[in-house]
Amino acid sequence: NGELVFEEQWHGRALGLGVVVLEQTGASWAEFREHLVAAVAAHPDDPADSPADRYYAAWLDAVEALLARRGLSAAP
Known about the structure:
Helix content: 55-70%
Structural class: mainly alpha
Number of strands: 0
Strand content: under 5%
Low-confidence stretches: none
Order of helices and strands: HHH
Shape: globular
Largest sheet: none
């Protein structure tokens, strides 16, 4: 039906957070992709985590890296 389905609720929230950060900072998807590729490569391969958990953990690391490069903070 075209609706996004996530393994865990926090996965959807992580995706939404990333979208909002890109919109609010004016960052491009290409810029974010650089951070995401680096975060996925650097993320440990823990067999206790599902592939989706590892991906969205890397996604959040990429959001933080993007904010840090722009001199912003993810902390409230």
